[in-house]
Amino acid sequence: MILKELSAVNFKNFSGVEISLNPKINCFVGNNGQGKTTILDAIYYLSFCKSFLNPIDSQNINYKDAFFVLQGEYERAGKTERIYCGLKKGQKKIFKRNKKEYEKLSDHIGLFPLVIISPSDSDLITLGSDLRRKFLDGIISQFDSVYLENLLMYNKAVNQRNALLKYFQKNRIFNQDQLDSWDNQLVKYGEILFEKRKSLIQELTPVFQKYYQQISGGQEEVDLVYQSQLMKESFLDQIRNSLPEDLRKLFSTVGVHKDDLVFQISGRPIKKFGSQGQQKSFLIALKLAQLEFLKNTVGINPILLLDDVFDKLDEERVSHILEMVNGNHFGQIFLSDTHPKRIEDILSRLQLESSVFEVSNLEISQR
């Protein structure tokens, strides 16, 4: 899969952008704050129907205007695909594929697979388990629309059950039949999510370990450990046994919404025992494993976005990563960097097929 043309009108700080893109490597270089990441975000938006930087759609409209438009022309499975996204303030977002509007945005997810590596990935290590669950759910949802539907239904059941617990407390009543209805929904959808997540981690782990060894030189052992309450006993039994605590806390204390993915280095949590360099290598390896897994699952080379990932890495490691992702196993690559000469020298030395675009004052020019 290749993104051949990208255009953006009134997207964030850009008033208008049109770019013809290289089928292999596209580098956007320049100082910080010039708009490099915005270009990558526009590409991300066309795959996921949302920004990876700002979840509030209206705030992605140029402050001077009342709308934005994003368009991309892809080559996918030997066919030309045109994707359109338009948003006007106060109106519904419109997404079209080949001029046909989607009834549900979820129908678009996974058709144009994409993986992004960015500085915010460090949150996967440093912040709470909800981000790591979203990471797992995001991977599976790109190739399994049924999983996405089950996830939405499970989250709805959790919210409804929590609301019912609060209703019982407020009105000093209790109705087991009403509670059983939502308990059964939790079990029905939760067990499916659990099995899918467990299967994903089993497949992802050896690929992730392979990439980490390549990046780090094989100096440490790393692992991904899935933690879920469903590994202990029957989900339904756990729900019933947790009822007194749920009634006291007024929310559902057991379920796959409590799952976590533990990142380990040499058998210990990387959050506490990994250096900055080890953590960065860990995250890059994890995302490259995600990309390979998606490719093998959907049969399409996902687009890879590298947003300022070379910051604080030496030239040798940057060269190694670029050489690795340029292999035939990877597809089209977009990267942003603040060191134009370093990137151009590496691309030239490795003889990599590429285009370099300079971004300055919200203007884009090819070097």
Task: Give an account of the 3D structure.
With 367 residues, the protein is α/β, with parallel strands linked by helices. Helix content is 44%, strand content 23%. The chain contains eleven helices and 15 strands. The chain has helices spanning 36-48, 123-126, 129-141, 145-171, 176-216, 235-241, 243-249, 270-273, 276-298, 315-325, 340-350; strands at residues 2-9, 16-20, 25-29, 67-76, 79-88, 94-97, 100-101, 114-117, 222-227, 260-265, 268-269, 303-307, 333-337, 354-360, 363-366. Strands 2-1-4-5-6-7 form a six-stranded antiparallel beta sheet, covered by helices on one side. It has a six-stranded mixed beta sheet with strand order 8-12-13-3-14-15, with helices on both faces. It has a three-stranded antiparallel beta sheet with strand order 9-10-11. A hairpin with a 6-residue loop joins strand 1 (2-9) and strand 2. Helix 4 (145-171) packs across helix 5 (176-216), helix 5 packs across helix 9 and helix 10 crosses helix 11. The two termini are 25 Å apart.
Distance between the termini: 25 Å
Which parts are unreliable, with pLDDT below 50 for 5 consecutive residues or more? none
Anisotropy-based shape: globular
Structural class: alpha/beta
Q: What is the N-to-C order of secondary-structure elements (H for helix, E for strand)?
A: EEEHEEEEEHHHHEHHEEHHEHEHEE
| Strand percent estimate | 15-25%
Number of helices: 11
Radius of gyration of CA atoms, rounded to a whole number: 22 Å
In total, how many beta strands?
A: 15
Spatially, the strands of the biggest sheet line up as 2-1-4-5-6-7
Percent in helix = 40-55%
User: For the report, how would you describe the main beta sheet?
Assistant: 6 strands, antiparallel
Mean pLDDT: 91
